[in-house]
Structure prediction request, 352 residues.
Amino acid sequence: MADHGDWRPPRPCEAYRAEWKLCRSARHFLHHYYVHGERPACEQWRRDLASCREWEEHRSAEAQRSLCESERARVQAARKHTLVWALRQSPPADWHLPLPQEEKDQ
Amino acid sequence: MAGAPAESGPGAAAGEQLPQQHVACQVFPERLAQGNPKQGFLSSFFTNNQKCQLMLLKTLETNPYVKLLLDAMKHSGCAVNKERHFSCEDCDGNVSGGFDASTSQIVLCQNNIGNQAHMNRVVTHELIHAFDHCRAHVHWFTDVRHLACSEVRAANLSGDCSLVNEIFRLHFGLKQHHQTCVRDRAILSILAVRNISKEVARKAVDDVFESCFNDHEPFGRIPHNKTYARYAHRDFQNRDRYYSNI
Prediction:
């Protein structure tokens, strides 16, 4: 975690509010149930919004810690499955090459 | 792909089916009339190719799913050029489009894409394949599991399996039905471009499903509609701030 004077919340507080509001909407309940077969959990967005506001008003170290922990948990959750393929170190060499000549001649 | 049937050569690495069709493989070229989406205003004055080009341009400029994918690909070193990386062509059968990894080109089936919403979805679907090709060593032609993984991701993240689209296909289901749809459409897409049995395709999808269904790159979430896609794009544009502060 960046522990120096120029730390700021990973997202603007308005983004936490927008995510919380979206999460609690009836539409999102329907989408989430359609995909996962259960109701969504929105409480963490509410906690993160509160931490963000707490940090903005009081520069609370506890709020900073809580936000970092929450976002790192989200990143971990997104990365927990082993990928089927190997990631590239550089893009495909032929991505920008012109099309084969016979295509151009058609 | 360039006018050749998908299964006759290296051809299409990955294909996408019309929403209402159940015929999966291009060896059966019969087309059911009711499978064609409603033709709009453009059909009276433009050729299929011109319509395709116009709809593609609108998609590239305005659709939030596509704009995020284009940004992500540019960030990965695969900037997309409309003239180089897209081709509007007539296709056999009922396929809507495909990604040809051998030429790094997305083919749009101008005779099978009838309206803007369909174009949006096909471009999103094929750009997900292009994105996978750009960021990973995908063995499109030699490992059916890799193809299956990209098809699972494309069906999951492009809106192919939205509740509304499934209802239009007369597939009624709610609780976790999205996952059933993703599996089924991934299998159909595999069968459209590979001459393998349904059982082999199904096994490949089953093998990779857990990993690939939960790989939401570059969206970071399943974008259920344009609002989610816009939020995902906002997060992508904010990623430097995000990763430097956690």
User: Anything to note?
Assistant: Residues 26 and 32 of chain A are 10 Å apart (CA to CA). Chain A touches chain B through 46 residues (CB under 8 Å). The longest helix of chain A spans residues 61-78. The helical segments of chain A are 13-24, 26-36, 43-58, 61-78, 101-105.
